[in-house]
């Protein structure tokens, strides 16, 4: 079957789907599935805009709300993961995944599904070491810290994914696995993005958690986004025994969704011709969720996942064939994911803008139904209970003070020492908020929805590339590629502390005398949200 893969969507759904329709008209190629690697921006209304970690002037409504309201419907089944520019309050409603609109499915914090027999997994968010070992404690209304920590990857999601034993065909992450650049044309990458050089040479670019998953899962394909540059790599995995067949992963990072950018890729994937056309649950993944349910943590206390170190009675949460069989029997062997999308918030009305709409913490019926069916903890319900309990004990103020400390100084060291969300140096194609500063006051910042009829894109067919039969990088192109394991080439557990020079890059702004009385934001090119800046970025 044909699978279309997109990078950072940034809410431009009309652009994506129009490009796919153009592909069909001109070349008679119609993808069966669309995958999006984060920064999807499922923004339903003005309150959702307030929960997106970008400066207020870049909070534009875009076009998702039309699909949410039913005005439009996605022409192809779309599956996506979350990135670091999302309506976090909306995605938080679906921690285990679910429909954000008809025919548009979110994988959750981490998830695995099947389509036509193809096994698709993913993990949402970006890596930050100081939040990695915390639980999912955030909920709207967010403060200056939680609006960002809400999309940071947690160790429990990585732990769950590492329990998978059956092969994965496709995996998605927003930020790149650390060290993957050593397996592709690194010279060309640095030519296009010279500001990556420091991180590449110190092996700190990308996510160590994603690198760990790449080594463990060894999927056939791995797709990422985040850094707004197209990059291919081919990683040959080492075998654990003579009996194990060699495995390799074809990695592809996609560009952002803007006119005249190569942001879509079409690949041919082997599938089961006897499988149906519905998105399906993955029985092994459901069994793992059930097995790890006792590990769910909704506090900001840091803790490590169970491991074989003499401190835990149980550390292996992988599931048996019998446990998988039980899941199949519970579902009467019908794995089809129900089309139970439900509106849980008012939809944006261009004729009646509500700039002062406030976000609320919502429990989504899809999650309630999913948890009841499989005996799982509803994370949002647990968060609400914890808030009520702490309020009763008079601990709210203390918790707020703890949340305001974004340095993680009170925590034990993370298992990953380097606090790296993909970049620490200046990247002209990314927006990141200063971890120690912050955006405008979230309770008073203005929102600037786009007009009802946003500027039309002049769709160029250069936006599409068809994947060749092999994504392998030739030995001539794979500069400095030694086919070493990712761990050997820098290792996800060998992170380095940032130098003062690197840390200083997190603070920009202030007046000409160097004063910094105004709260600052770190801007890695506003072209993400303003297409007119594209020429300047390039």
From TrEMBL:
Pfam families associated with the record: DBR1 (PF05011), Metallophos (PF00149)
Gene3D superfamilies membership: 3.60.21.10
GO molecular function, one term: metal ion binding
Compositionally biased region (Basic and acidic residues): 385-396, 485-510
Annotated Acidic residues bias: 431-442
One BP term from GO: mRNA splicing, via spliceosome
Compositionally skewed regions (Polar residues) per UniProt: 415-427
UniProt-listed SMART domains: DBR1 (SM01124)
Record-level GO cellular component terms: nucleus
CDD domains linked: MPP_Dbr1_N (cd00844)
Compartments, as annotated in UniProt: Nucleus
Region (Disordered): 385-538
Keyword tags: Hydrolase, Iron, Manganese, Metal-binding, mRNA processing, Nucleus, Zinc
Domain (Lariat debranching enzyme C-terminal) ranges: 235-380
Keyword Manganese attributed: yes
InterPro entries: Calcineurin-like_PHP, DBR1_C, Dbr1_N, Metallo-depent_PP-like
Similarity remark: Belongs to the lariat debranching enzyme family.
The protein's name: DBR1 enzyme
Organism of provenance: Calcarius ornatus (Chestnut-collared longspur)
The gene coding this protein: Dbr1
